[in-house]
Amino acid sequence: MDTLAQNPPTGIAAATTDLSKAYGSGDTRVVALDRVGITFREGEFTAIMGPSGSGKSTLMHCAAGLDAFDSGSVRIGTTELGTLDDRQLTRLRRDRIGFIFQAFNLLPTLTALENITLPLTIAGRRADQQWLDRVVAMVGLSQRLDHRPAQLSGGQQQRVAVARALASRPAIVFGDEPTGNLDSRAGGEVLGFLRDSVRELGQTVVMVTHDPVAAGYADRVVFLVDGRLVDEMARPTPDRVLDVMKTFDTRTRTS
Ligand SMILES: Nc1ncnc2c1ncn2[C@@H]1O[C@H](COP(=O)(O)OP(=O)(O)OP(=O)(O)O)[C@@H](O)[C@H]1O
């Protein structure tokens, strides 16, 4: 697939416009996303934060083509997800999007290298060896490529998952609490690698997190409350993020 021809550079890796989604109906209807408009620029690291139930995971899943939405639009590059059928959507996810989840989701019988290249193998694509070497070196796994997941620490396993997400050089990488299962040191390493992938490799990364320290690694933080985008912060620090989160606690308690 000639992705460049289909997707001329726009500087925008992904964007949502008036994105809305509700679960259930009648008395049990919950509006998870309420007309969310957000742009993820190429080469930028964005953290999505907000109180529990504010719609973070729903936003990520809709933006990544994992979940259907009710109205509005989502685009990856210049491709509108609403125009794709299931088969095209599956292909877009496979070819253009990288995923990192809280659980590492590695296959236990495969080596680190086989896990990293598995999505390419499934897609029938050859790895760009130079790119793969850079990614593997960046996450510090060069000496451990023959190890199986059980022979790696949690932090190392998540580094394999980071390399797997980057291996196809996707348009955008989505992480759902990627450090949720790691201690603070291993989590800090993984976040450092994600930041390096943005700084050194020009990747675009979007991460859902509860952790102000994790958000401090991002270039900007967007805040959701009750399915709405309510605030945004450039060059976040953990303290400033915490201050904003505290105002949400107060609002929730007094509403
Ligand atoms: N499958 C579902 N069925 C019904 N309601 C759902 C479903 N998934 C999410 N919701 C509701 O939609 C709202 C947003 O949920 P979502 O998981 O996106 O929030 P979140 O900010 O990611 O929460 P958390 O931080 O607790 O993971 C919540 O009120 C949640 O209860």
Automatic annotation (TrEMBL):
A single MF term (Gene Ontology): ATP binding
SMART domains documented for this protein: AAA
Domain ABC transporter: 14-251
Keyword Membrane applies: no
Gene3D superfamilies (alphabetical): P-loop containing nucleotide triphosphate hydrolases
Highest taxon listed in the record's lineage: Bacteria
Family matches, as PROSITE patterns: ABC_TRANSPORTER_1, ABC_TRANSPORTER_2
Protein name, per record: ABC transporter ATP-binding protein
Transmembrane segments: none
Keyword Thylakoid among UniProt keywords: no
Alphabetical UniProt keywords: ATP-binding, Nucleotide-binding, Transport
